[in-house]
Structures are given as C-alpha cells and as structure tokens.
Amino acid sequence: MGAEMALQIIDRRLAGKNKSVGNRERFVRRYKTQIADAVRRAVAKRDIRHIEQAENITIPRKDIQEPIFHHGQGGVRDTVHPGNTEHVRGDRIARPQGGAGGGGGSQASDSGEGEDDFTFTLTKEEFMELFFEDLALPRLLRTHIASTLQYKTRRAGYSHDGTPHNLAVLRTMRGALGRRIALTKAPNRELKELQDALADLLAQDDGTSEAVAELQQRIAGLQARMGKVAFLDPLDLRFRSRTKVPEPSSQAVMFCVMDVSGSMDQSRKDLAKRFFILLYLFLTRHYEKIEIVFIRHHTQAAEVGEDEFFHSTESGGTVVSSALVLLDQVIRARYPAADWNIYVAQASDGDNFGDDGGNCRNLLAEKILPLARYFAYVQVAPDEQSLWQEYSQLLPLFPHFAMRKVAEPGDIYPVFRDLFKKEGVTV
Amino acid sequence: MNPSQYPVLARRKGSPHWKVPFSGDRSQRDVPATPRPAGQRPNQPLPDPSDWTFELIERYHAAIAATAERYGLDTYPNQLEVISAEQMMDAYASVGMPVGYRHWSYGKEFLATERRYRRGHMGLAYEIVINSNPCISYLMEENTTAMQALVIAHAAYGHNSFFKGNYLFGMWTDAGSIIDYLVYARDFIAQCEEKHGIDTVEQWLDSCHALANLGVDRYRRPSKKTLARERAEREQREAYAQQQVNELWRTLPARPDKNSPAQHHERFPKEPEENLLYFIEKNAPLLEPWQREVVRIVRKIAQYFYPQRQTQVMNEGWATFWHYTLLNTLYDEGWLTDGVMIEWLSSHTNVIYQPPAGHRAYSGINPYALGFAMYRDIQRICEHPTDEDRRWFPDLAGTPWLPALHHAMQNYKDESFVGQYLSPKLMRDMRLFSIHDDASERELLVSAIHNEDGYRNLRQTLSQQYDLGAREPNIQVWNVNLRGDRCLTLRHTQYQGRPLSDDVQEVLKHAARLWGFGVQLESVNGDGNVPVLLHSVPAPPA
What we know:
CATH architecture of the largest domain in chain A: 3-Layer(aba) Sandwich
Largest sheet of chain B: 4 strands, mixed
Number of strands of chain B: 9
Order of helices and strands of chain A: EHHEHEEEHHEHHEEHEEHHEHEHEH
Shape of chain A: flat
Radius of gyration of chain A: 41 Å
Distance between the termini of chain B: 48 Å
Radius of gyration of chain B: 26 Å
Structural class of chain B: alpha/beta
Shape of chain B: globular
CATH topology of the largest domain in chain A: Rossmann fold
Number of strands of chain A: 13
Strand content of chain A: 15-25%
Number of helices of chain A: 13
Strand content of chain B: 5-15%
Helix content of chain B: 40-55%
Number of domains of chain A: 3
Helix content of chain A: 25-40%
Oligomer: heterodimer
CATH class of the largest domain in chain A: Alpha Beta
Largest sheet of chain A: 6 strands, mixed
Structural class of chain A: alpha/beta
C-alpha cells in the first residue's frame, strides 16, 4: 500500500561522482590521433606563455557517428502536426527548404544534434597529458627534489639569544614578572611579619626599645634586598627564533637562445619555436613560476620580447658566443643559480663565424653548464659544422647537456621525447 | 522534466511473473471507481522553504503517497536518491542505466551533454527514474522543495506505476533483474577486454551496436529465465551453440537420398528472421564463444529498451497527469501553499508546452503535451461526455474514470493508445492537421485537418507515426548461401517508397564483421516483388 510502503531516501551526493570518467577516457583514447592533431594545431597558434589552457577539440561528425539502419530522404511520409491556423484539406504547400524540416518533422533529428561537427572541451590537464604522457623532467628526481638549493626561514619557538629586532616583548615581560614574583615572595612574607611585629611593639611602648630598632633594621635590610631584584634581567630576554628550512626551488627560468642571422629562415624559426614551446610546457608541469628570457643573436646578441624574437629577421653573419656571453651575464645578474632552476634551449642552424665554436664550447663548459640544470641544443639544419663538432665534445663531460638535429616539424616531438626520456637516461 | 529520452528499466522481483497473465485486465490491485475519501484536513500546509531537508522530503512524500493510494496507483516501493548535478550528467550519459559496460559511445554522450549543459543550451532534467524494484528516482540537490515534491509525484508515483502496470514492460523487461544483468554484462565485457584486448572488444561492440535496433524480437514473446539460470547456462550454451553451428555448416557430403533438388532451393532460414543479432548469435559459424556472448548481451539490453521506445507518449503523459492530479488534490485539501503551487505549475506549463507547427521552437509533437492532454481527455469523456463523445467512445463515456484511465495505461502502447483514444475534441483543441509528403511531388499536400472528414484520417496517421515498425526500416535476414561463399542476404522491405539512408554501407560492414563472411542487402519495393541488390560487402579480412 502506497502510504505504508517503506520509503528509502539515500544521499548519494558524496558517492560515485564521475561515473562517466571511464567512458570519457575511452572516447579520448579512440580519437587520440584526431585529438592529438588538434592539440598540435593549437600549440602552433598559441604563444608560449599561454600554451597551457583547455582546448576545444572538434572532430568531424561523420568520424564519430555510429551508423545504424534508418530511412533516408525520399519516399512518402504522412505526418501530423499541431497548431493549424490556415490550412484546409487539399491545400498545397511549398516544400520547406532544408530537407525534412517542418513537413517531415518526425524524422528530423534522431541524433538530436544536427549536422555540426562534434566539439568538446579537452581539459587543461588532458591537453597537457597528451603531450607529456610519458615524459619526466630530466634529473628531476635526482636533483630537483632531492637536492635542496633554496631555504626558507620558519618560526621555531623562542630562544635565549638573538638580535634585538627579534625580541619577543610579551614573552620577555612575562618571564620577568615570573622571576620577580619568584624572587620576592618569601621576603615579602617575612617583611609583612616583621612589620606586623613592629606595629605591635610600637603600640606597646614608645618605640625606643632595642627590639624595635632591631626590627627596623631587619625591615630595612629586606627592603634593600627586594629592591635589588631587577625589573628586567638579561635572563628574561626571549627572542623569536627562526630556523632555515630547506625547500625545493619552485621557480625556473628558461632561456631561449636563437640564431636570427640571415640563414635562419621562417620555417627554421618555426621549428625552433616548437621546441621552445615544448620545453616551456614541460617546465610548467614542474615549476610554479617560470620566467622566459629570449636572447637572439647574429653577430651581436640582444635580449628581446617574444614577438620580436620569432618574427624579425636580421641579415649578416653569426657569432654564437655573443649570445652565450650575454646569457652568462643575465644569469649572474638576475637569476642566481641558488634560487632558480636554469634551463637553456639553444636553436641554431649550426652556422658560426670562423673559430668561434671553440669559444662557445669553453663558455659552456666553464661558465654556463655548471649553473644550468639542463642545456639542450637543437640544430635545425642537417649539416655538421664546427659548432656541432665543438659541442659534441661536451657530451661525455656533462650529462645534462644534450644536442639533436631536427629537420622537420614531425621530428620535434620525437627529439623532445628523446631528450627527456623517462628515467635513467644519461642524456 | 525531460526523462523521456532516457530508457527506464523495469525489474520484477519475487513474484513469478510468468504466471501473471499479460492480456486483458492485469491490474494487480483493485482500482477504485472513484477516489477513496480524504483523510483529515491538516491544520496548516506543509512548510515550503526553498531549501529542502530530508525531513521535508519525507513529509511531502508521505502526503503524496497517501493521495496516490487513494487513487489506486499501484507502485513498486520507492527509493529516492539525492544526487548532484554532476551525477545527473553521469546518469544522462549512461542512458539512465545505473551500471553499464565501458564504451566510448557513452563517453561521447557524456561529453556532448556536458558541453550543452555548460554552455547553457540545456537544463538538466529535474529527475531521472530507473525502473527497478524498488523503483529508484533521482532527486537533484539543486531542486527546491516544491520541485522535489513535483519530482516525487511525477517519477515515484507516475512513472513508477506505469512501469508496474503497462503490459509491454511486463512482457519485455522481466527476465530476472535488469540491474543484475547489467552488472553481469559489465563484468563480462571487462573480462573480455582483459583477455582479448580493449580494441578487439570495442570493435566488436561497435558492430553489435550498429545492429542493436534490429536485435529485438518484435512479435515473439521472450523466454522467461531468471538471471541465475542465465548465468549458469552460459558455458553450457557456448559449447552447445558452437556444436550447433558446426552442424549447420557441416561439410560432409549429404547422403544421396537427402540431396533432393528441392533442397537446393530451400532458403536458410526458412522463414525470414527479424532479429539480426539473434540470428548471428545462433548461426554465425566462426564466432568465438565470447563474441557470441557479447552479441547476446547487446541484444538483451536492446530488448530491454524496446518497450520504452514504444510508450513515450503514454508514459510521460501518465506521469504528468498524475503529478498534476496529485498535487492539485493536495492543494485542494490544504496541504500545499500557494508558493509551492505556483512554482511547480510554472514548471508544468513549460513541460507541456506545445509550440505550433512553423514556430521556431517546433520540433514535432511534444509527448508530454499529447500524453497529458489525452489522459485528461479520457477523464473528461468519462465524467462529462458530450454527444460526440458518446458516438465515438460508447464504451467509455459516462463510466468511472479511474478504472478507465488505468485500463488505458495498462493495455496499450503509443501506437494503439492514440489509435484508440485520440478524440475529435482533442484534435480540434490541438488543431491537428496532417501533411502528405511525397518526395516525387513538388509540393506538400494537406491531407486532413481537424474536421469531421479528417478525424479518422488524422487519428490513423498519428497512430502510425508512433509505430516503430514504420519509423524504422524493415530489414530481415532473408537467406544464407549455404553451399557457396556463406554470404548473408538481408532483405529490406520498403515502406511507402522510403529509401535507406546513406550510411547503409557502413552498417553492412559491421554486419559482415559479425557474420564473418560477405553480407549483401537487397530491397523489395512495396508493390513490385523483384528484389534489387542495394549493397554488397565482402567478407571481412580474417
């Protein structure tokens, strides 16, 4: 019976959210190629700092349709509609444009969505996952987390010594008060007894007796003693104590160094950009704060903005070491290695002036590589010139130095993966 | 309220349903001729703060339940589950199934739902009801107290009693418990994925889904097996089925006396088979046992959803009629405040709004509007018949409305319900007209309108519009080339000259994957009897 029927109310709000996650994953998995393509296209359009956002992915509807048998256009259809205002039997009406609409309404939208492409939003996380599915920051586990480069001071109670600006006044005064009470309690009690006795004596005689004098003397002695208890004693001082707590650095700086001499055409720069983007994206996964410094060079190096970096062409020769000198200066001036994780990505077509290659190698070996967390050199041209040969000598010496050649956009991602391959790669 | 798109599942437990007669008057409980008398009038109406509490839900439920009982609504026990909006979206995506196997298409559904919802193109349904015993209704936590009352009346008493009462649900959805079956299906498919790889299973499911609409028995009564037996019989069935298939495809030369000429012309199957998935499950020669079982699972689930697709107008109309009637009764008897009334009525009005043809928002007949209006009309015909009603509904006019209404709910599906009960008055009220659209003509023809000449025609046309047989193409297994390349021939019988859509070729590829050999599709015109070969798909690569 309805009324007596046991009603059960269950609160499910906390249970089993995201039941569809598994199905969603299946969907993404199935259309991974399309989605990955869309992600790649999106990357090309965005600028480096804004790379990490959710992305709308559109897949042609026909690709995700599940085919079933159903009626197509044509044939005879009889349908009933509401809201007749003007028709009588036998009226002829012009066929509405756009296929089955109006007249053949019953058939119109089985899938409910019309003909548009299927669009959905890839979350920021999924977007990133698609890039970094099997990457991990090089040496991250070994150095970034394990070694502690940055310290943070933290309150750690009170101590007896310290600098005046750390004086904890309240604590100090409280201690002083306690000490004063402790040191004067007994004398006070005695003083009070003596004063009472004195008062008794004075009430009995004229106050000239020896006993009175003795009492007065003892009272004076006690008062002197109590007067000597300091209001504030060095013992009372308390200072706020701070200890240094090691904390892994959460900021990184990424240097993009690129050759913009005449031989670097737009497509080579594009290759370089993709590489920089990937590195940037990758770093954002591991650091809270990332700064990017763009250094471009031909015969001279300059620090520039992103737009200029990628879109202006210079002509003339190339002196790579000029950029490395500037890089070193900027690091020392603004990004001390103790506070910053320094990443350098250098892109060039390998062209360099005369014997500058040796300079570059020395600069790297002596100044830059000891400070940098990772240095990747990407050559966007196939031939091995002096710079490549000089850099090659660094490979065995510095495990965090890597170099590769990239010929076309498709190479970037594999090279990148190669560079930062998961776990234990002695790059 | 838009739960109509979401399948609802009936589950019967305990009572041996095969003993329940399906035809005729199947009411499990006596429906009173008139509503039973009300209890004592409350001193004051139920409180109506906009934020609900569990205690309030219980009090509203008690009032609604008592009223429903007076109207003779027979329901499964109710289980109300409070869920969040995210969970509601999950429920949407899994087409209302509380449990489901993993498949990308549900992920697609979820993404589409989520996107529409986030962009504000669509509100979420206020409720989804899962038909099971006890009947589970979802209440969204965002709903106000008044809306929760509406949902309880609509889902927990309206839909619930429909599921328990309608003959189609009784006939098709009672094999043990659907929820247990879904759990079994999910586990089985997960096992298959472990064994054979996600891609293999996904491909297989894709192919099954492509034919799922043709994986239902339309006329044959389903066998009644409990889930326990189902499970226990599986291994047995696998072994046996394989044997049967081998029997069918035996390559030993037939004995001379059997090799009569007649046999060459005999088709297999002898009679066309409407259930493609069933035919494949039983006869495809090369399937591995797990593949057969997956075909079976998809086919079973499709079969469970079949009645739901046939009773949309009736089901929604019934639920809407009852939330309307129950809440109004409660108001009349002093249980509800004006605020609650205005709130749910505003919702109700939106739900039953029927934009006229040609209106920007028009997308066919709103099943809520039609169903609600029809039940109200039946009530009117019973209580206040006109002369016209007496002519059209001699058996109905002037009889007690409650039993008549229950009878209409129990023994019809949309097609026959419209055919039986759509009254001239309602056709006039809705200003119905029918359009004859012949693709070979330049213009559309208005074939009937709401007048004396048109009533019967309109009623018949609308009834056919709800006939799944006319809405979906009629495709059956016609023949298998037993002695040659084992090619499977499907035959499409055209309905009113309607051709098949363009993606037929794709579906046939799926069919070929399931069958394991070539598949061809031929089409016979309604009048001419010469089959035309439409498409042919070669055997899938091994």
